[in-house]
Amino acid sequence: MSSTYGKSLSLTIFGQSHGAAVGMTLDGIPAGLPVDTEKLQYFLNRRAPGQSQFTTPRKEEDIPQFLSGILDGYTCGAPIAAIIPNRNTRSGDYANLKDCPRPGHADYTAQIKYKGYQDSAGGGHFSGRLTAPLCIAGGLCLQWLEQKGIRIRCHISEIAGIPDGPAILDPVNPDLDAIKEAFPVVNEDAGEQMKNAITTAFKNSDSVGGIVECFATGLPAGLGDPMFDGMENRIAQIVYGIPAVKGLEFGSGFAVSRLLGSENNDPFTVSEGRILTGTNHAGGILGGITNGMPLIFRVALKPTPSIAKIQQSVSLSKMENTDLKITGRHDPCIVLRAVPVVEAAAAIAIFDAML
Amino acid sequence: MSSTYGKSLSLTIFGQSHGAAVGMTLDGIPAGLPVDTEKLQYFLNRRAPGQSQFTTPRKEEDIPQFLSGILDGYTCGAPIAAIIPNRNTRSGDYANLKDCPRPGHADYTAQIKYKGYQDSAGGGHFSGRLTAPLCIAGGLCLQWLEQKGIRIRCHISEIAGIPDGPAILDPVNPDLDAIKEAFPVVNEDAGEQMKNAITTAFKNSDSVGGIVECFATGLPAGLGDPMFDGMENRIAQIVYGIPAVKGLEFGSGFAVSRLLGSENNDPFTVSEGRILTGTNHAGGILGGITNGMPLIFRVALKPTPSIAKIQQSVSLSKMENTDLKITGRHDPCIVLRAVPVVEAAAAIAIFDAML
Amino acid sequence: MSSTYGKSLSLTIFGQSHGAAVGMTLDGIPAGLPVDTEKLQYFLNRRAPGQSQFTTPRKEEDIPQFLSGILDGYTCGAPIAAIIPNRNTRSGDYANLKDCPRPGHADYTAQIKYKGYQDSAGGGHFSGRLTAPLCIAGGLCLQWLEQKGIRIRCHISEIAGIPDGPAILDPVNPDLDAIKEAFPVVNEDAGEQMKNAITTAFKNSDSVGGIVECFATGLPAGLGDPMFDGMENRIAQIVYGIPAVKGLEFGSGFAVSRLLGSENNDPFTVSEGRILTGTNHAGGILGGITNGMPLIFRVALKPTPSIAKIQQSVSLSKMENTDLKITGRHDPCIVLRAVPVVEAAAAIAIFDAML
Amino acid sequence: MSSTYGKSLSLTIFGQSHGAAVGMTLDGIPAGLPVDTEKLQYFLNRRAPGQSQFTTPRKEEDIPQFLSGILDGYTCGAPIAAIIPNRNTRSGDYANLKDCPRPGHADYTAQIKYKGYQDSAGGGHFSGRLTAPLCIAGGLCLQWLEQKGIRIRCHISEIAGIPDGPAILDPVNPDLDAIKEAFPVVNEDAGEQMKNAITTAFKNSDSVGGIVECFATGLPAGLGDPMFDGMENRIAQIVYGIPAVKGLEFGSGFAVSRLLGSENNDPFTVSEGRILTGTNHAGGILGGITNGMPLIFRVALKPTPSIAKIQQSVSLSKMENTDLKITGRHDPCIVLRAVPVVEAAAAIAIFDAML
After folding, report:
1. Which helix (H) or strand (E) holds B344?
2. C 213-252 → D contacts, CB under 8 A
3. Cα separation, B162 vs B172, whole angstroms
4. Burial C251-275 (b: 16+ CB within 10 A, else e)
5. Which of A252, A280, D9, D284 has its CA 20 to 30 A from that of D297?
6. So what's the pLDDT on residue C194?
7. Per-residue pLDDT tens digits for C110-128
8. What DSSP element (H or E) covers A159?
């Protein structure tokens, strides 16, 4: 059941990188919600590969085929199923991965867990390609949340240690429109530096990581539950399903550990008949439940493990050390394409909490 | 179902801070596992309040009463149920919290969600007191894991920005016995500075936060599942159920975002017939699945929100700003008591994954 | 997780027949629902043993102690926990059950599954005593359903082959008040014959079974879901958790297999601005979803397996046949006490579907 | 989540009768299990329509396309996904079902629940066509169970009140090979009478129902769990997901209610070093757990609700009574095609319990 997520809804992701198709089923969605497929496609294109010089040249159009659950432009109450057939499939590129696992990838752990029966081509079920069906589900949830006045938007907070800024998004009242479209940063100069860092890494047969920061605005107070089903728990369970995520923090996150209580506590205040907080170190969540302020979290993404540099690995059959040269071409930085994926994950978790 | 955790086991936590009792049920545990109640009590005492000058003087002995599931010192296959009756209960200390929510607490969000019916005394179901039954379940899992050669141990990695160290625990081969007993740091000088920071905060009617770092050693490779049931996801879902947690990172965590791929990828190597990695930036997890290296994560805890300083809040009935003075005495720093709680949470998640 | 039930709510039952206590936790209940403990006690007393000559003389008062989740007479949103301490516990009556399993009981299967670690006294976790906490949860749900105009009521449809009747309850418009209080049949003469059959069985050191029929009226149309979460599936999952149940049928049940389609199809009709059906062979459920007609099901209960007659069993240690004489006193017929238990189970399933 | 089943595995069924495709995902299956697609196709053909004069002439080949989870003839550990594209789709046959619901169908309850957004063509997600993907999952589980020496086989126990027999299958030691292939009864004369009853019903523009009896042999003792996850509960949850099922009984089922305890209790006996029972009224299940004897249950199926006779229904828009004439052709008896479906459901439930 590892590929299933949700409390009120149930999302199942299936597929392998080089299998016949990737896809998803989404159950528990009320009937009568409108589906704008053009808008969805626009969203999916943000994640799709081959769109810029900063991403892998593997070309997939990522046009979902809906098999069920949608009728005449509206959800019909039955489970929604959609698939994206894979075109660029199984090549010889991955022949030796079962014997010689790539550092930083799941090749070795899959070999142990699935005893050699796993589909190792392109990482199989562990591939970043599986974020495409996640974005189908998330893109739908984003549409439905928008109709309730909820916006979810990410920017690249850091790449290779280069922060977006100095102007930042106000945690109390963030201007989400300040985030640029093509390369989603607030500060374009910072964005240029990030691009340079990616280009440099690529030239050096290397890769870089980064941090994506997500804002959800317009949320009602009262979403989420205490203990194990709080908004942090729900978001964490889905966000850690995105490959390459190694850290997740809410509000001021790790920085709260260095604040005094009198600094970190967000004072309540009445403003125009509403209860707000003057600061937002809590990231919009208290006791696992939204307080009506912007929900904010940051996600740390590791540098793409597939690099062209020669690396040290092992031959599992010979049980001896060996050098590994990964062929094929890969994203030198996953962060740009992760931006819509994190938005999708947040949308699914929040929409689930609202059902 | 917010207070229920687990895939193969099912843990339910119940109780309110000032109710009749707190407790837990733990279902899905195989029959025939031995239960050492003395050892469990020793573990629970590490979390119990009133044990040192650094924790709240509220006195609770935290001796669990087992109601079911254990017979003659062994699990019998039926759900385990245990309660800890509350002795220090409902005082007038919390009378006005429904109208005037404490900044940084769940008072306001509980009021919105439960419409005034919530038990607000002492934070009710949101209280840190609910970590006592979590520690019953976790203390049992720790025993059962130890029998399989698995150790789980935390140290205080930071308090008030003061890091444990400079000697740190090697992520590849950590010496868990280097962690001190009473105040669990590796470096006692660092520990003394932390204690001073807590004392200073307390004198200033304030509080401080910190970071707890957890190590699990002796794990087999192959635990966990891809996507939403990876070890990161499972640990995140339970750890974010601990009050005050605002950040969670695995392995090198947020720092991986600033590494090159060639730095971050842990090279595989054969050593004495076993596959190891030369570094451990991954924190023992690749693709959600353990790789046999130490599993490492860090948890950011905010400063205790209950401080003696006057704070700004609101009167919900009058919808106007008001000053709030919190009476009663509280932990100036929750980090010390959080250490066994994080160990318990890790043990539950890992034991669940092993079933 | 075998002892946990529910989709929107989560009910966990714990305890063994001769352990310290039996109890339940009930999570996912909205805050602000009133709890009438007197009414609950009245309901629990209907199930309690020792109330008449037709039930076991084991005396348990079955007064629940609420540990959490209820404050000042209302649910507070936190998980509800309640226990009933066992008074009449562990005697020598059950000493040899591990070696010589009772026919018709779970002694043998528990021995296989729990490898001798199970609590065999009184059937342990398999005991009918575990229906007491089920009735706590169900009694609460019954109260909350009544406030919405929903009534759930069972009568004894058969004991030892003797049917209630000839007057029966109209499936389209049942008069639930026609069911008698103390011995819940519609026809008192039939009830007297049933009592005689029980008395006769008891005198012969034997036992009898029967059928309980359950009606739920006042249900809105639209409850339940297609496929695996239909009302039939939901009710089946909880009803088969009641010991001794071996059959369950909805509406006309097994009899529909002998009807023509033109007989079995309930014709729709408009009556006073509402859609009704002229007959109710469907038992109020079409496609798993309620249609607004009375929901009706019947439960077959086997004769109490504990009988005073000498029976053939085996010695597991010697692997040879042996005679078994069960001592202690037992219900010669479980059907009377099962009536409130079936009502409780139906109430939990229906309340869960309404959340 | 209504269309998702399983504890250790997770089966999701999707599709509508006249949508693009029907399909399933099956998660939680271990890697390395062989898949015999020819054998699977043979099994699926038993359910497919248009195979004989006794079933609907709608022609669907029901050849599944596997999209993921299977590699080189073995499961690879990733979720298995398979679809069957619909060829015979959306016609005008179903145009008025939203306004004029068919008696005995889910048209009315779907209209209430999904507010007019449901896909009503051919019953949409409620259609018997959704049993095709159930049979994909079940057909795979049957293969994997067979490798462990477990056989699951159903016969038609009754159609239109005509019983299979007089020779019946011994509940203690059933000869499953006595069940005929094409028309699965034990007694061919009885089978001929059943066929005649179906033909007669069809000529009369009517339909008939029946009872399917299922046997599972070779099961180990110890499968299943107490209370809500017993084998009865698990099987009930999936079997009630098959359209037209209105009753389910285990072992002697409803008949046990008329037996004495001394008759119903199955005596234990030692035979060739194994523990058996002399009779099998329990149907192989005690306390929810298998005892190693054949697991036996019976399923009551209602007559096909789609009949050519004019029936009484209502116009929902006009809120007045109206006559309904169902066009198109339908199975006059669903029982024959239900046989492999019940086998599939049993296989899924049992395989899930074995994981």
Report:
1. helix B335-354
2. 221-222, 225-230, 232-233, 236-238, 240-241, 243, 245-252
3. 24
4. bbbbbbbbbbbbebbbbbebeeeeb
5. D9
6. 97
7. 999 999 999 988 889 999 9
8. strand A151-159
